[in-house]
Amino acid sequence: TIIECTNNIRDVFYYSNDANQNGAVVNLDWEKAFDRANWDLVIKMLQKMGFPSSIINWIMNLYKNIQSICLINGYLTNPFNIERGIRQGCPLSMIMYVIFQEPLYNAIENSTKILPPVIKGKQIKILGYADDTTGFMKDDGSIVEFFNVIKKI
């Protein structure tokens, strides 16, 4: 939840301060995040995560091959296809966006060049909630690598 995420960020600050650990926190709010979601990638991630094809097909029926119409100054536009993105406000949107972000989060977690602060023997490199991503790094080299990973993905 957002409360857990906020509490984790707060705890990293407090524990790092108490232990006199240097570090950096990078918070990213992805611009037009839900609009940029690539459905081919989402499908691949669902398959990789072991979702049954029946569930994947059910989700795709809700999100693929859809059209929209806009009301502008009292007039309806012609229908147009929605080619990419995740509908904001849809109950599945948060989950679908998290699945879309999974390759990025995995790449950051698996990078040996990104060193997070150690808090009570645990390391937290990255946290995410909806379209907000928070990264924790121990040194300048980790910050550079964090952004290098983002550029690659």
Automatic annotation (TrEMBL):
Q: Which domain of life is it from?
A: Eukaryota
Q: Which PROSITE patterns match?
A: RT_POL (PS50878)
What are the BP-aspect GO terms?
A: DNA biosynthetic process
In this protein, which residues make up the domain named Reverse transcriptase? 1-153
Question: What start and end residues bound the annotated signal peptide?
Answer: none
Entry's InterPro entries? DNA/RNA_pol_sf, RT_dom
Q: Which PANTHER family match?
A: REVERSE TRANSCRIPTASES (PTHR19446)
Name the record gives this protein = Reverse transcriptase domain-containing protein
